Amino acid sequence: xxxxxxxxxxxxxxxxxxxxxxxxxxxxxxxxxxxxxxxxxxxxxxxxxxxxxxxxxxxxxxxxxxxxxxxxxxxxxxxxxxxxxxxxxxxxxxxxxxxxxxxxxxxxxxxxxxxxxxxxxxxxxxxxxxxxxxxxxxxxxxxxxxxxxxxxxxxxxxxxxxxxxxxxxxxxxxxxxxxxxxxxxxxxxxxxxxxxxxxxxxxxxxxxxxxxxxxxxxxxxxxxxxxxxxxxxxxxxxxxxxxxxxxxxxxxxxxxxxxxxxxxxxxxxxxxxxxxxxxxxxxxxxxxxxxxxxxx
Length: 296
Prior knowledge:
Number of domains: 1
Strand content: under 5%
Helix content: over 70%
Radius of gyration: 18 Å
Order of helices and strands: HHHHHHHHHHHHHH
Number of helices: 14
Largest sheet: none
Structural class: mainly alpha
Number of strands: 0
């Protein structure tokens, strides 16, 4: 179909592929046996190492050269740092507070990204994106409703700050389509490694968990990160954030298939809301409605 060869169709295919790969993150984390912040450190080390080697072998160039040659090096570095902060805030929130509240707060990322796009890029998301984001948040709330609740304002603020950091990261990437996404993802790994080492003492990886950590850090995270980063060249940051909510559907399915943990019935109802929101976006685009592309 011609639509999937268009810029928007390509962007949607890229982000869907990235999320499909990223969705195996949850079971791999569980299989690794590592404490979350310690795992974050090793994820950063492995993601950076894999992409540095890949770029050196395939393009005969070092990551820092790609960043240095960017028109504005501050943009990709800031994007990488924001994504790292967002990931660390999520891990911290889930580890110390209510999983349900953190997940729902992070589901507001499409709204925050839409606001960032208006302020930073003068890119206004169409009404359908706002409505689809609202429907998706309802779906995420349904999925998370059975998790334990803890009303801790400090953790809510941290989670909201993490969601804002992710929104800023995607908006900054949208602002710099010419920047190599491999370099940005590698920089994200460096930032994650540095930030996690400040709040947790890195420990060795258990032998039984080593294969899962290697697959996660050398394959899953770098490939997914690059694909999702490439999608920001063709889709607004709010739309990329919206498609990322697919992971809230896919992760429980993987956990069920691998560990036999039966998802609650509300998970399937929530999945319907999220899928309906994403299908609406895609079908409206296919029918001929397209958003304008913005470059900084």
